[in-house]
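Hey team,

Filing this mostly as a record. A colleague (T.K.) asked me to run one chain through the structure pipeline before their review meeting, and I want the input and output archived in the tracker in case anyone asks later how it was produced. No errors, nothing strange. Just documentation.

Input sequence:
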Amino acid sequence: AFLKTEYPDSELTVFEPRGKEFVCLQENAKELGIAPGNVVKGRPGMADESAYWLERGVAGRRMLSRKTSLDSIEIESRDLRKLLDIPVSFLRLELTDAEVDLLEEVADKLGNVENLVVEYRALFSGPQRLASLMTSLGKAGFRTHIRERFGSPNPLFERNVVQRDFASDHRVTV
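Output structure:
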């Protein structure tokens, strides 16, 4: 809503993979004058294809390559490379470790993006990939500002982890 209010002539494409949230997004987009074709039930991905989404509470969401449980839902991915063929004033992405690959895949197209905000979460169960993310952004010419979110004030002694098997222990906005 903020971007459409501040920049009323802008063209927005917005993604939401989850059903209830998507319906809400459609209603909000209609009120803001966002074209129905620019409201996508899915997520940006490496290709136009199906993917699976697993969600466990507020802290635990992740993309999967295949259905792994009853909690997995199938969603559509829209090829982000195609969306970046034209100049983009503002791009905001939420990434977990596995999705850093997506940004690396489209790195050569990031020159078409004027402003980029990335919310990055390192999954507790895997390696952190913040260095890869920062390298990709640097190669694309972005200067970075990092803001920690939900971090531990004493990371040497305690880590703030909501769901140890699925959650993130490092969350930053770049």
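Quick notes for T.K.: Residues 19-32 form the longest helix (14 residues). Helices lie at 2-6, 19-32, 80-83, 100-105, 130-139.
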